[in-house]
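Batch queue: ligand-bound targets. Current item pairs a single chain with pyridoxal-5'-phosphate. No template structures supplied; prediction is de novo from sequence plus SMILES. Inputs echoed for audit trail.
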Amino acid sequence: MSNHSEKILFSVPFVAQGTLDNLAAVIADGHVHGDGSFTQSASSKLETITGSSKVLLTTSGTAALEMSVRLLGIGVGDEVIVPSFTFSSGAASIVAAGGVPVFVDIEGDSGNIDPALVEAAITPKTKAISVMHYGGVPVDMDAIMAVSRKHNIPVIEDNAHGLAVNSKYGRLGSIGTVAIQSFHDTKNIHCGEGGAVLINEPALVEAAEIMREKGTNRSKFLRGQVDKYTWVEWGSSFLPSELNAAVLDAQLDEFYSIQKKRFAIWNRYTSELASWAEENSVKLMSPSDGVHAAHVFFVLMANQEKRDALLTHLRESGVFGTFHYVPLHSSPAGKKYGRVHGSMDKTEAFANRLARLPLWPGMSEEQISRVISEVKSFR
Ligand SMILES: Cc1ncc(COP(=O)(O)O)c(C=O)c1O
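Prediction returned. Tokens below.
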């Protein structure tokens, strides 16, 4: 029975079956601070699904970005090339180290940084290139890594959306010098707030362990490699508690069934909205090679007015669709701390035309059908 007064939320965090048992085990064990058995278990599962040789859990994706920037030695006045269409932390993490985000435009279809524009934005001050796989659709990493090698500039891969995506460039998160995941409760798997930094350059592993442990060599001490631990470098409290790791570990156990449910919704939207899109000059998300993470499903309306009208129409019928990132170059902090390289036309058009539909694993067939029919009733 359809219930048209029921609200369909944009995102509802998944609850894994093993959550309460895992939490009870942490309390019973008494090791509640970080780096216990659930941290180890979750990190090694993440190494398996991402193909990264070293995964360190962090308190958030933002913390992982801050660590990445510091690990690459970015400091006062150093520039990092970054898309303007990304989460604020992509730029704020650079500014936190005294660096300057240099915004370049995106590709109009995917929302990903346009690799063809990156090289021209390089100056003697450029210390890193930061990319973000929007919706888990791969950035052309062959092109990015070629620029990286040519200019000897490391790459940060923000893979908050693309956990376990296998692309023709390799598995996302295992390609850049360092990469990050977010386990915020809007992500495909989560622990409320959490993240991970993926170290793909072995020479950075020791520095990363120190940085994550408040700048101390406590990790070495715990492994019996030094007989006491001390403050050795810049660092902060980037280590999550076992409670977060326990929640994440339970989600990792169900990762593939979560993905299956998300893909089923994504595929229904794609097939059942195709004719509506064609008749109304709407562009549905269409990842090249069909590769994505079922993290978002978006439509690109003809212009901002139509996008806003679609979102209002959906909201009035109880369906909570939403826009996404406000371009960082146009934000107050982006203007204050960043610099624009070239045109931002595609970034602005993409951000203004984009609407995302509800997508979470607990959606019923009926709820999915209602989203589809409410979208189709908009002309
Ligand atoms: C692309 C991207 N990177 C990084 C983050 C930051 O992650 P967190 O919320 O875990 O700090 C987010 C937002 O959650 C994001 O969407």
